[in-house]
Amino acid sequence: MTSYILGMFGIAAFAITGVISSGKKGMDLFSLVFLGMVTSLGGGTIRDVILSMETVYWVKDTSYLWVAAMSSMFAFFAVRVIENREGLFNYADAFGLALFTVVATERVLLYGFSPTIAITMGVITGIVGGIIRDVLSHRSPLVLGREFYATPAFLGAFLMVILEYSIPDHEFNAIYAVSFIFVLRVLAMKKGLYYPNWLLYQKKRHD
């Protein structure tokens, strides 16, 4: 039940970022709602397709679809009265990243897949929705920036696997992992955490 609720919050958070990312471009209500739904449902859809699940999760449970649509509509009308849209976008994105990564990792483990597959699918689910959003909104994808983005997702998914194997009956495992990813992402935004230059790709200069 905890992961189900967290998943719904993740859907809402990413739907809101989808609307904010293109809200200033003069798009109509339907277009923005569609973008919010694609953003919030895209990562999990790709996960289920890769794992050859019999039915994609939001087709099986249309509550996810409704939450995505209603959250997008709410954001469409509410975002115009919010001054710091970029701040809201960043925090909602960090929250959605954390929630999607952890919920997907836990779900894939429950499907019976190995920890390696669970971590991989957790990271993919967490970052793909944001990539789709940024590409459709003509933004530079956050995952391609210098700040930690995929790294917190990977570490959080790894932590979730460890917790599930160490204390499998603990009901707050997902909350611990979500908090861990969210804090790392916020620190990356606030403190500019990124890999040292020797771990970054550098183009050669041609004089």
Automatic annotation (TrEMBL):
Membrane topology designation: Multi-pass membrane protein
Domain Glycine transporter: 5-78, 91-163
Record-linked InterPro entries: Gly_transporter
Name recorded for this polypeptide: Trimeric intracellular cation channel family protein
Coiled-coil features, chain-numbered ranges: none
Membership in a protein family: Belongs to the UPF0126 family.
Organism, scientific name: Marinomonas phaeophyticola
Location within or outside the cell: Cell membrane
